[in-house]
Amino acid sequence: MNNLRNDEVKLEAVRLDSEGFNQAQIGEALGTPRTSIGDFLRKETYSSWWAEFDNECGSPSDTTPTLQLRNKASVLHYVEPVKIATRKNAPDNCTHLMIPDLQVKPDIDTDYLRWVGDYIADKKPDVLINIGDHFDLPSLSSYDKGTKKAEGKRLSGDIAAGIRGMNLLLQPIADIQAKELEEYGEIKYKPKMVFTIGNHEFRLDRHINANPELHGLISYADFKLEENGWEVYDFLEPAMVHGITYIHYQPNPMSGKPYGGTALNILSKVGESFCVGHAQKLDVATRFLPTSGKQQWGIVAGACYDHFENYKGYCGNKHWRGLVVMHQVSDGSFNPMFVDLEYLKNRYNRKKDTNKIS
User: By the 8 A CB rule, do 321 and 340 touch?
Assistant: First the structure.
C-alpha cells in the first residue's frame, strides 16, 4: 500500500484529481484507502505539505526538493481545457442535443459526464447546447453563506472542478476529431456549440458586483468556455438557433424572474418554441399553428446530473434527469427525443473498466 507521506504519491493523487478521477478511482490506482484520499484532497491532512504546494514557484535554478515540488505544483494547478473544432452555422433540418444543468462541483462522482460525452460522440449532433449551470459554484451560494455548509469551500476549487468536468464531457468528441484528422487529413465532425450562462455561473458576476475590487481579476473567461469552442451567451440572453430559443430560463419581462406554471403556460406567454433548464423536472408542451403549419414546442428540462442534492431532500431528488435530442429542426419545429440518464448509465458505464487509472 502506498503511503501519502511520500511526496510523489501526493503529487500523483493531485494529478489524478485534476484529470477528473473520483476518490475511489484514485485510491484504487495508488493503493490507498478512499477515505485517506478524500481527507488529503480536502486538505484535512498534511496541511504543511499543502502550504508548500500552494506557494509560488521558485526560480528555475532552484534545485531543492521543496522548490522542485513547487514547480510541479504550478503545472498541476492549471487545468488545460479540451479544445473542440466547431463551426459557426449548421444546416437546416439538422439535429440538436441539449444538455440540461450538470451542476459540477468538487467531491462528486463525475462518471455521468463521461456517459454524456460518450453518447454525444456516438450520435454526433449538428448542434450541441449546454443550457447552463454546468459550474455549480457552491462557494458562492448565498443560501450557504455563514453556515456550516460553507466551511472549506473555495472558488478556485469550484472553477477547477467545472473545467475538469467539461474536459471529461468533451474528451470523447476530441478523440473522434483526432481520429478523423489522422485518417482523413481533416476533421469531418464539427458541431456548433452553444453555452447559455445559468444562474449558478451568474453567482460569479453577482459576487464581483458585490466586491468591485475583484473586477478585472476574475470573470466568466476563467471558465475557459470559449477556449473549449463554446459560443457563450450571457445570463438570460436568448440564443436563437433554427427558430428555437435556448435560454437558462424564460424570464418574465416585468420582473426578470422565471415564468411559473407549466411548459404550456410558458409557451402561451412567449409564443415561440423554446428549451430551458433551471427547474429540476421534465415538462413538455406542444401546439400546432394551423395558418403556418408550424408545430411549436416548449421544453423544461433542468437536470442531467447523477448526485444527490441535500437541499431537495429524499423525495425532491427523484426527478427526471437526462438529455433532450431534437431531430429535423427547422423554423422552431422538431421531433423531440428524451434520453434518460439511467439509460446512459446502463449503456456506457460498462466502459468504466476500460477507463481505469493505470
Answer: yes
Instruction: Please tell me the distance from the alpha carbon of residue 79 to that of residue 329, in angstroms, as a whole number.
Output: 35
Instruction: State the DSSP code for 57.
Output: P
Calculate the CA dihedral of residues 195, 277, 220, 238 and round it to 10 degrees: 60
Residues with Cβ within 8 Å of residue 62, at least 6 apart in sequence:
68, 71
pTM of the predicted model over 0.90? no
- Here the cell at position 279 is 427547474
Number of domains in the chain: 2
Same domain membership, residue 134 and residue 44: no
- Kindly state whether residue 221 falls inside one of the protein's structural domains: yes
> 165-224 pLDDT, tens per residue?
999 999 999 999 999 999 999 999 999 999 999 999 999 999 999 988 888 888 999 999
C-alpha cell, 157: 476549487
311 lies in some domain:
yes
Q: Are 198 and 225 in contact (CB under 8 A)?
A: no
CA angle 343, 124, 182 (to 5 degrees): 125
3-state SS class at 195: strand
Comparing CA positions, the residue from 248, 223, 100 lying closest to residue 165 is: 223
Query: Can you give the length of the chain in residues?
Result: 358
Give the number of other CB atoms < 10 A from CB of residue 287. Answer: 14
